[in-house]
Amino acid sequence: MSCCKEHQWKEKNHSMVSEFLFVGLTNSWKLQVLLFVFASVFYMASMMGNSLIIFTVVSDPHLHSPMYFLLANLSFIDLGASCVTCPKMIYDLFRKHKVISFRGCITQIFFIHVIGGVEVVLLIGMAYDRYVAICKPLHYLTIMNAKMCIFILVSAWVVGLMHSLVQFVYILNLPFCGPNILDSFYCDFPRFIRLACIDTNELELMVSANSGFISVGSFFILAMSYIVIIVTVQKHSSSGFSKALTTLSAHISVVVLFFGPLIFIYSWPSPSTHLDKYLAIFDAVGTPFLNPVIYTLRNQ
Questions:
Q1: Pick from 138, 177, 164, 141: which is nearest to 69 by CA?
Q2: What does the pLDDT look like over 183-214, one tens digit per residue?
Q3: For the chain, what is the radius of gyration of the CA atoms?
Q4: Is residue 163 classed as helix, strand or coil in its secondary structure?
Q5: Buried b (16+ CB within 10 A) or exposed e, 256-284
């Protein structure tokens, strides 16, 4: 009987929180207007830029190559990244009560980490594509064939889904009985977990280690791959070094812009709440906009 009562109590408490309140970014009217203009312009530019890249790659037969196949998929993921948090953030800027439902919060968390995982693998795939193109140009079409491109894409989605689901299964049954205030403008694992009515120290450590390890580890792999490419080219040809560096500069810029905020948010031992928020804005609004700009500036 006591066991049944305890189970009913847990269910009751779990259902007590049906929505979450965002603290938001700022209470300053001027900053809100500035953020509204900034976010709206960059969001629309990101949607248009990434959509244009996808349309151009699909419609132009000359761009049906591995590099542009991966670039089009990166643009597709950037469209998703823009849509997960930006519209809600823009809509909430002038609202007094910034509310999101429990299911809406869970859904947002799930897609944020799926998209993040997919983009990580795509960036690694693009780095490998550049390595083959620069270091093994005669074997490029043999190595980077259609099967390899599909393999990279499928691997990206599998890793993204697994990365999100591994953490997701741990939070589905967490009891939430209050408070329900999130000091942010979007839902993410660390702050969401802290609101649970049980001790979540070990779970927080697991989530931080998971996302932090993926961010730092992937950044290290990419950095090493670029160093190998540059060193290899420099050994064979001094004139080819500047060309390789120019080719890689777009990729390096995108990698730094993408991984910089992630590493700080998930791996920094003493994170700053305010800095986290503005880094998250940059990651949600700035990076999806800058990716197509950086890549298109380097290609005719």
A1: 141
A2: 888 888 878 888 888 887 878 777 777 777 78
A3: 22
A4: helix
A5: ebbbbbbbbbbbeeeeeeeebbebbbbbb
Distance (Å, rounded) from C-alpha 52 to C-alpha 161?
27
Q: At what angle do helices 66-92 and 29-59 cross, to 10 degrees?
A: 150
Find where tokens 């998971």 sit. Answer: 210
270: left (phi over 0), alpha (psi -120 to 50) or beta: beta
Which strands sit side by side in the sheet containing 181-182, from one edge to the other?
Answer: 98-101, 19-22, 181-182
Q: In whole angstroms, what is the distance from residue 282 CA to residue 4 CA?
A: 48
Contact present, 290 and 261 (Cβ < 8 Å): no
pLDDT greater at residue 125 or residue 244:
125
Element (H, E) at 55: helix 29-59
Residue 247 burial (C-beta neighbours within 10 Å; 0-12, 13-18, 19+): middle
